[in-house]
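Reopening this ticket.

The earlier resolution said the output was attached, but the attachment link was broken on my side. Pasting everything inline this time so it's all in one place.
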Amino acid sequence: MTACAGLSAGNLFSHYTQQNTIVYQSVKTGQYDKALSALPAEPVAGDILDNFERGRVAFLNRDYPESKSALELSDKAVRVQQDKALISITDTATSVGALAINDNITEYTPPDYELGFLHLYLGLNYVESNDLEALWSK
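Inline output:
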C-alpha cells in the first residue's frame, strides 16, 4: 500500500516513465539541476524507485551527500521489502486491483540488475566522500 500514498488523479493513469519525461530529457542533456528539481517532491512510485532515481540524478549532479542519503533510503526500502513474507493478502489484493487500473498501484520490485546499480552508486558515493570503511562494512 505504500505505493498508493503518492497517487493523484494526474499519475493514477500514467506510467512512471511518462511522469518523469522532463527528468529523463534533462539528464540526457546534462541539465542535472533541472532534473533534480523536476523529480516529484512526494513519492510517486514508492521508496525504492523514487529514492533510487533521486540518488542517481543527485550523483550525476555531483551532490554526493544528497545522492548517498537517497540511495541509502532506497536500499533500506529494498531490505524491508525482501524481509516481508513472500505472499501477503494485502499485496495480492493490490496486484489484482492494479490489473484493472494501472501498474502504478503495485509495489515496485527492482530486478537484480537494478540492485547491482543501486549498490554500485552507493559504493561510488562512499569513494567520492572518501569513506572507504563504510564501503567495506556494507
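Reporter confirms the inline version is readable. The radius of gyration is 16 Å. The first helix runs from residue 9 to 12.
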